[in-house]
Amino acid sequence: MSQEIKEFGDYSLVCQLGVGRFGRVYEYIDRVTEKRVAIKFVSKYLISFGKPDFIPNEIKAYQFLGKHPNILEFYGYTELEEEGVFILEYFNGYSLQRVLYESRNHNKRPEVTNSLLKGYVLQLIDAVKFIHSHCIYHCDLRPENVLVNNSKIKIVDFGCALFGPSVFASSRQTLFSGSANFLPPEALSLSKDSEFLVLKPCVDVWAIGCLIFYMYIGELPFNGLHYEEALTQVRNLQVDFKGLPSFIKPICQSIFQADFYKRPNLEELEVIVMDMIPE
């Protein structure tokens, strides 16, 4: 990857915000308006090995979605010789993974209360409902792709997104490429086009279940350290519910079922969360 770019168009570099698998994100400030933005540089070389559709998927998802309070806003895209460059809303927060870890292990942050966690879950569900209403499916919901600032969350990174026929002329795209720890068993052994259409929303519902589990216990339900181990756990529904609060266990159990037709949809899940999780 190239070195830090001190001046990028109308923007001046403030600091680095984070580093991911395929690139890095910086905070920049507009020299005229003083508006802050996040600029993500994605390595074309790195994504060419495993996720060649990463950049076009993310562009298309952001272009079709428009604004939602819990989705990072998209301002534009441009390219450098070696990198794709996304100009995004600046959100002064950290990943859900970091916030929960520091809150529970290092006392660097105030305790994340049940009230806050319930708010995170409901915001997550609302954002995913909005995404699905545009026939877009995130397919990579995990703690690293949820940003948190106090009581508010933002979903980021649509590089693994899949799309319905109203977005793409063909509904058959590259199969699910998100993390195996967050994919339902049927997505790991996909065979028929008819299943594929049904599974797109199911993938995000399953991932929300994994995130709910993670928020309340600090561990993933399917926590295999390598790909094959995670696959085995997911396919066999090997989940240890010990330590999970009594009001969370039935929610996760309703999602972690082999038959995806028996799982709650987003609307049903929203009602369950509102009724079962205390403030």
Describe the protein.
With 279 residues, the protein is an alpha+beta fold. The protein folds into 2 domains: 7-89, Phosphorylase Kinase, domain 1 (2-Layer Sandwich); 94-276, Transferase(Phosphotransferase), domain 1 (Orthogonal Bundle), CATH 1.10.510.10. The chain has helices spanning 44-50, 54-65, 96-105, 114-133, 193-217, 227-235, 249-255, 266-276, and strands spanning 7-8, 11-19, 23-30, 36-43, 74-79, 83-89, 94-95, 136-137, 146-149, 152-155, 162-163. The protein has a 6-stranded antiparallel β-sheet. A 3-stranded antiparallel β-sheet has the order 7-9-10. The protein has a two-stranded antiparallel ribbon with strand order 8-11. A hairpin with a 2-residue loop joins strand 9 (146-149) and strand 10. Helix 4 packs antiparallel against helix 5 and helix 5 packs antiparallel against helix 7. Residues 169-174 have low confidence and may be disordered. This is Protein kinase. GO terms for molecular function: ATP binding; protein serine/threonine kinase activity. ATP binds at residue 40. Residues 11-277 form the Protein kinase domain. It holds the Pfam family Pkinase.
Oligomer: single chain
Main sheet record: 6 strands, antiparallel
How many individual helices? 8
Strand order in space, largest sheet:
1-2-3-4-6-5
Radius of gyration: 19 Å
DSSP E strands, number = 11
CATH architecture of the largest domain: Orthogonal Bundle
The CATH superfamily of the largest domain appears as: Transferase(Phosphotransferase) domain 1
